[in-house]
Amino acid sequence: MEKHTIIPRSLVVRVVLFLALCQLSLAEKRTYIVHMAKSEMPAMFQDHTHWYDSSLKSVSDSAEMLYTYNNVIHGFSTRLTPEEAQAMETRPGILSVLPELRYELHTTRTPSFLGLDQSAAMFPESDSVSEVIVGVLDTGVWPESPSFDDTGLGPVPSSWKGECEIGTNFTKSNCNRKLIGARYFARGYEATLGPIDESKESRSPRDDDGHGTHTSSTAAGSVVSGASLFGYAAGTARGMAPRARVAVYKVCWIGGCFSSDILAAMDKAIADSVNVLSLSLGGGMSDYYRDSVAIGAFAAMEKGILVSCSAGNAGPSSYSLSNVAPWITTVGAGTLDRDFPAYVSLGNGKNFSGVSLYRGDSLPGKLLPFVYAGNVSNVTNGNLCMTGTLIPEKVKGKIVLCDRGVNPRVQKGSVVKAAGGIGMVLTNTAANGEELVADAHLLPATAVGQSTGEAIKQYLFSDSNPTATVLFEGTKVGIEPSPVVAAFSSRGPNSITAEILKPDLIAPGVNILAGWSGAVGPTGLAEDGRRVPFNIISGTSMSCPHVSGLAALLKAAHPDWSPAAIRSALMTTAYTAYKNGKLIQDVSTGKPSTPFDHGAGHVDPVSALNPGLVYDLGVEDYLNFLCALNYTSAQINSLARRNFSCEARKTYSVNDLNYPSFAVPLQAQMGSTGGSGGGTGSTVVKHTRTLTNVGPPGTYKVSTSSSSDSVKISVDPATLTFSQTNEKKTYTVTFTAPSMPSNTNEFARIEWSDGKHVVGSPVAISWT
């Protein structure tokens, strides 16, 4: 028998009040990142860390520094009450005290799809690529993955200053000549959520999630023959830069990725001498001086490190982008020419195509009872197949149709299976349209688009005895059209700086095969006991490391190129049309995609090796950009770690940032004249750009094309002649627009060509 102890009511009240007060005092403290003006350190302090500590102790006796930062910012992170944070802001030498943010992860065929297999001779020798180090901030690494085999690699580059940190299930011997460094950062995470539960995740660089192993092996995984997921996508798996070295920085945990940890990892990565940084994560949108990733990326850019980030998975909504700072390369997602068809065969004789990565016992070779989840549930949202919502008596032995949304796709199949169902059809709703993402379901299942789902429901609701089965067809390649822009890929316009077009470009991000953690099954569900060396997943998390790896190849081929030059080469050579001339489609609409969807277009690494001309940018250009945004000296100092004042007499314009694309936001107004004239009823906007020759001498002529004639685009001069390498030439683009447009958005393209190279820039014109 259970014992039920009776406690006096007064004692209960006192205990509850005590616990509530404890919780209140704990809840008041949160993590802040404190930005210091290093140049203002009093002479009495010999070391800046002593100054930081003294400043902290002046507002809190108990607070301790979580991290001190040396490269990404001058300052530290700590736990403070809001009152203490306010007091800290008034202390001398304090630029800002910003609350920590939580960031989230943006959750084989690729090399040949990108043309890397046939063009090996065009890429740099393996010796130069093996000097390039790709740093990946993610969930860590599964070092036993064959993608980190170091066979054939020479000594670790002499430039490397990092290390292999030890921790739970991770020793120095887990690193090798391929995986040359591994660190983990958990102080910010633990300060907010308490100590890591080591029975659930490793307090070390070890990846218990799979995401980090997938992204790092996509960027620079070694060549592995015979790779597949349950036989799907069988072939040779290899990263974009298979000879480059990998350094892993674990910043993401079960509870998310915290900005104090992200900043600490970027701080170390810069000190460790990585050449490329890959971050498949994002947070909310905020000004650059408040955005930890943007702040860290600025410091990396100064050191010549290209920072590649995922655009986010909040598409197809407009203004849904993450990581939009102009010194970050922002990557959206497209599809490959590969699919995994699985058909729904109905009792009325009709067949509908879907996709699946299920591998296991097949369904019986006959039609089976078929039900709609909403009709076999005990809750109003039963159609979503959420945990515990299906009635086993009504589900057992049947195929269940579930609607997509709220809970993970694979979990819906697990719920059906737990209730006794033997198969699932997962249908998209309006939010996902016709986009199909394949999953390694735990039971026979397929995913179908919205229109297919509607047709299947019509049969389900009208037939008195509906039946169905699912047929699996394996892997198909040569799918057309491809690529198409993924519906989940976040879209512009840029909500922070409308004059900077984002995303920068798209890369493969749907159904990507890469290395996986041995600690978790392919679905990531606790009940999934399967273990696989490779997994197929989707997201801008997958497209970002493609570009990170390609940037490593370009860095090896052109060691003197700046991050801006590398990004420019990738953008100006990207393609926006298929070989038949039709524009790349957006799967969410079935119509041609726009620069707000695909940026400059889909990456084309072979062309990027030899772009002809590049749009280069340096630190001073970005500082002038911040002046154009009317940033204060303190805000610039927080971001760029220097005393920099914008000149009062100088006119700064965002339109003069030497970006490889053009965004022209306009305000619709009657009878207005803007810019430098253009006549009553029109708006004139001018953009200035400078091209640097990185190819042979040549004469480039400009051409423009537009989706509409309502905006006049003129380029002056129309011809640029380059006689030597690194020569620079400037041109101006004038946009003359009517004050009352016929459309909300218009799109155009500006191309410079010498007959061999085509240097393309997208143009997005929008009225608000």
Write structural notes for this entry.
Strand 11 and strand 12 form a beta hairpin. The chain is an alpha/beta fold and 768 residues long. The radius of gyration is 28 Å and the shape is globular.
Secondary structure class reads alpha/beta
Number of strands: 40
User: What percent of the residues sit in helical stretches (DSSP H or I)?
Assistant: 10-25%
- Portion in strands: 25-35%
Report how far the terminal alpha carbons are from each other: 71 Å
Q: What composes the largest sheet?
A: 7 strands, parallel
Protein name: Subtilisin-like protease SBT1.7
Biased composition (Basic and acidic residues): 197-212
Domain Peptidase S8/S53: 131-581
Subcellular location: Secreted
Summarize the structure.
Helices cover 22% and strands 27% of the residues. It has 18 helices and 40 strands. Residues 381-456 form the PA domain.
List the helices and strands and how they pair.
Elements: H1 9-28, E1 30-36, H2 48-57, E2 65-69, E3 75-80, H3 82-89, E4 94-99, E5 102-105, H4 110-113, H5 126-129, E6 133-138, E7 179-184, H6 187-193, H7 211-220, E8 224-229, E9 232-237, E10 245-250, E11 252-253, E12 256-258, H8 259-272, E13 276-279, E14 281-282, H9 292-302, E15 306-310, E16 329-334, E17 338-339, E18 341-346, E19 351-355, E20 368-372, H10 392-395, E21 399-403, H11 409-418, E22 423-427, E23 445-448, H12 450-462, E24 467-472, E25 476-477, E26 484-485, E27 505-508, E28 512-515, E29 534-537, H13 540-557, H14 563-572, E30 585-586, E31 591-592, H15 595-598, H16 605-608, E32 613-614, H17 619-628, H18 633-640, E33 662-666, E34 682-693, E35 698-706, E36 712-716, E37 719-722, E38 728-738, E39 745-753, E40 758-767
Parallel strand pairs: 6-10, 6-13, 7-10, 13-15, 15-16, 16-27, 20-21, 21-22, 22-23, 26-30, 33-40
Antiparallel strand pairs: 1-3, 1-4, 2-3, 5-12, 5-14, 8-9, 11-12, 17-25, 18-19, 18-24, 20-24, 28-29, 30-31, 32-34, 34-38, 35-37, 35-39, 36-38, 39-40
Signal peptide: 1-27
Organism: Sesamum angustifolium
Family: Belongs to the peptidase S8 family.
